[in-house]
Every structure is written in C-alpha cells, then in structure tokens.
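Progress report, Aim 2. The chain analyzed during this reporting quarter is listed below.
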Amino acid sequence: MKTQVSIPHHEYPARVRAGVEARLEKLLAHFDRIVSLRALCERQSELHRVELVANVGRHATLVVDARADAFQTALDTALHKMERVLDRHRERLIGRRRDHRRR
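Predicted structure tokens for the chain:
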C-alpha cells in the first residue's frame, strides 16, 4: 500500500507526519486490498481539517473529511469514518460475490 501525507502549510511538526502514516497503516486491518491512501492535513482559521482518500482498486475511491478544533480530534474522527466506509465497502463486495455465485 502506498501512503502519502500532505501538509500544505507546514504548521505541524515532522513527528505528526510519521504519526499519521503509522495510523494509516492500521486501516489495512479493515480492508486489505487498499492500493493507496492519501491524507491531507491543514488548518483553516481555527479549525483543523483532515481529508482521507483511499483508492481500493476496481475504480473505487473512498473519501472522508473531518473538521475539529484540535488536530488529534479531527484525525481520530476521519480515521473512524474511514474504518466504517472500508468495512461497508468490504461487506458490499462480499455480498456481490455471494449473489453472483447463486445465479
């Protein structure tokens, strides 16, 4: 899996980038066929914004966005949302395979 962490305005320390990359790796437990993950971390006035984009193959791209007063809260929220989206995507794929076998 290829990961990319973008911090456009460099307002966060370098250890933040490493921490985000480590937490992105844990998303593989929810869906193991992730091709690439991209995280965009930025600060918009008083809010921190984290956007996660996952390319899961077969022309599917999953996107989540979270905003909060604290960076860690925004990151936690975005990761939780992405976990749910990946689980839903995996279940939908499994359901399609079962339906295909029945036909």
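Residues 2-102 form a domain with the Double Stranded RNA Binding Domain fold (CATH 3.30.160.100). The helical segments are 14-25, 71-102. These observations will guide the mutagenesis work planned for the next reporting period.
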